[in-house]
Write a structure and sequence with these properties.
single chain; mainly alpha; Fumarate Reductase Iron-sulfur Protein, Chain B, domain 2; binds iron/sulfur cluster
Length: about 350
């Protein structure tokens, strides 16, 4: 029996969407959306489910992950019901549903809690730095070890269980019977979507620059992670690795500056409504790119010891990023969207009974 939650629409407002009740179900948004197909139609259906409080249907749906938030549907909506933002809010809500710790939901719903968590992490970094007497060598060493430990822990303790929950809600609960072989033969879809986000190119109005910017950012971010964690960027003497890290951190800085300015100017439909989680994501990425660049520059100029504050700021941002924004914030959308499109492919390969 279908379960109805009459409070669902109210609950969703805590994840960003404003008043969408003006929707009169005309279907303009679905007709406008270039990603919506006869087999997978959205966003109108999601608006109906939300209005009716069909929480279980939404939890087991992958459609919110098929939307790339171009904002065309919101522009064409005659009632300003903002279907693009509703899809974004559903993605935040789903992220909270997949997260077994419950922290995603708490942080999305409360800015006070988010700020408190960021301050606690900052205090932890400061106290640790005090115990090693702000020694540059010790801080560099610990920062490097922390990165490796944080990546492994977040994947094993948070992401893997959460991805199983997502799979359970969207595949098992929908009674999709897929043999293991199909998961393996479809794996290429996961990696192609994850690293190229190629589906975003079909999002109206074919904003290839936005897609390209995202692509460069993803590669710059992942390769800087690799360069700092596995090639020990802050500790290496290799000129190639040093220059590589400079280029990667510079690219991150430049692209995120452009993203932040777009959000400030609200120059596109997707920038019209920015939630704290959106700001946190771009600002922290920007600051991490900038401070990583400066730490390496100070090492090369041999002035890091006299300016240990820059490394302390970088470590603080890194810890906040690794412990809050990556496991419980907007970063997870990158992961869930890739798996969402992978699961869609697995579902569509199911032969009709
Ligand atoms: S959200 Fe707007 S465009 Fe979509 S069905 Fe409702 S009124 Fe029509
Ligand atoms: S924001 Fe773009 S991709 Fe998302 S539902 Fe609207 S038109 Fe489709």
């Amino acid at each position: 029996m279908t379960k109805v939650n009459p409070e669902f629409a109210t609950e969703l407002t805590k994840y960003g969407i404003g008043d969408f009740n003006a929707c009169f179900n005309c279907g303009n948004c679905t007709a406008t959306c270039s990603l919506s197909t006869s087999d997978s139609s959205f966003p109108r259906e999601m608006i109906r489910y939300t209005t009716l409080g069909l929480e279980d249907e939404i939890r087991s749906s992958l459609k919110p992950w098929e939307c790339y938030y171009c904002g065309e549907c919101s522009k064409e909506c005659p009632r300003q019901a903002n279907p693009g933002e509703l899809m974004m809010s559903l993605r935040r809500w789903l992220t909270a549903q997949y997260d077994w710790t419950g922290l995603s939901g708490l942080l999305y719903r409360s800015l006070t809690l988010t700020v408190t968590a960021l301050l606690l992490v900052a205090a932890g970094v400061f106290l640790f730095a005090r115990t090693v007497h702000f020694d540059a060598e010790a801080l560099l060493h610990t920062g490097h070890r922390f990165e490796m430990l944080a990546i492994a822990t977040v994947f094993l303790v948070i992401f893997i269980p959460n991805l199983f929950r997502m799979w359970y809600y969207t595949i098992v609960k929908n009674e999709v019977k897929a043999p293991v072989k199909r998961y393996l033969t479809t794996l290429s879809e996961l990696f192609v979507q994850m690293f190229t986000q190629k589906r975003a190119r079909d999002c109206d109005g074919k904003d290839n620059f936005r897609w390209l910017e995202h692509l460069v950012l993803v590669f710059a971010y992942l390769s800087l992670l690799f360069t700092t964690v596995f090639l020990n960027w802050f500790g290496t003497g290799s000129l190639f690795i040093i220059v590589l890290g400079y280029v990667e951190s510079f690219l991150i800085f430049v692209i995120t500056i452009h993203f932040v300015s777009g959000r400030i100017k609200r120059n596109k439909a997707l920038n019209t409504f920015s939630q704290p989680s959106d700001w946190l994501f771009v600002i922290w990425l920007l600051l991490m790119g900038l401070t990583a660049f400066l730490v390496r520059l100070f090492i090369d100029l041999q002035i890091l010891e006299a300016n240990i504050w820059i490394h302390l700021i970088h470590l603080t941002l890194l810890a906040q990023w690794a412990l809050i924004i990556v496991p419980f914030g907007k970063w997870t959308h990158f992961l869930y969207r890739s798996f969402g499109l992978y699961f869609v492919k697995i579902k569509t390969m199911q032969k009709p009974a």
